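Reply to dn_fold:

You asked what the input looked like. This is it:
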Amino acid sequence: MTANMTPIDWAKRPLHKYADFNGRAPRSEYWWFVLAVVVAYIVLSIVESIAGINRMVLGVYGPLTVLLWIATLVPQIAVAVRRLHDTDRSGWWILLPIVPYCVAFALGGAALMRGGTGTGLGIAGIFLLIGALGAVILLIFMVLAGTPGDNRYGPNPLGQAAAAPAE
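and this is what came back:
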């Protein structure tokens, strides 16, 4: 089944598996979907700029890009979790950059409310760096090849068996 899939088929597959957090997603499914979403954002941003409706939401975003973000949020998370499963990692790894960023924003916000100087902003900056490091690690996980053969999350989505050991 997967041998004859085109890039468009791979890009659409996460939408067909909208909220499926089980199983595995090969690199092609993840990266073609990411590319399709990025291209859609760029196209919608251009359309919003031409129509003059960019920066309508919170002074930064256009309504069409916000709708795209809302519509693709669950499939983006689901395909990322399945991608991590393909590398035999728990889907909870997706929180690696998110948790330090949340801590940084909480500490930074509290520091700004107290006057905006001092150790609070410094510690928030450290958590931002930790979050950036976590994002790089997560990117590396997404780029790595999946485990050959079956793993604890299911069969190989490409249908390839594990390589036989050399004798």
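Helices lie at 7-16, 27-51, 63-86, 98-113, 119-143.
Hope that clears it up.
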